[in-house]
Amino acid sequence: MGLLKPTCVVMVVLSWGSVAIAGSCLPPAPPWMPTDADDVQAYADLLKRDAEAYFADVENYFRCQDQKRREVFVQAREFSEAYARLLELEAE
Helical H runs in 1-92? Predict the structure, then answer.
């Protein structure tokens, strides 16, 4: 019975981490680029806008990955501390 409460805490921490992973960042899909020179010339403005938007999305993706990495690092540290407390209680 003494182990039940710390085990519940650990399970809550683990489930919270799973939610964070489920909300992870998705990489952007590269836009279509024509291979035909006439198409490139005909759609140059649109292709340029698509490319600029793609590169902006890539930058946002990397920022999101950096943020998620920081969040998971904090979660892992908090979980490690909770687990250490659980081990201490178990040793008593």
Answer: 4-22, 37-42, 44-91
* Whole-number Å distance between alpha carbons of 16 and 39: 49
Number of domains in the chain: 1
Give per-residue pLDDT as tens, 41-53: 999 999 999 999 9
Range of the domain at 9: 4-91
Distance in angstroms (rounded) separating the CA atoms of residues 33 and 64: 26
pTM (predicted TM-score): 0.62
- Alpha carbons 2 and 90: distance in angstroms, whole number: 8
Which residues, including other chains, have CB under 8 Å from residue 33's CB and lie 6 or more apart?
Answer: 47
Cβ atoms of 50 and 28 within 8 Å: the answer is: no
Q: Tell me how long the chain is.
A: 92
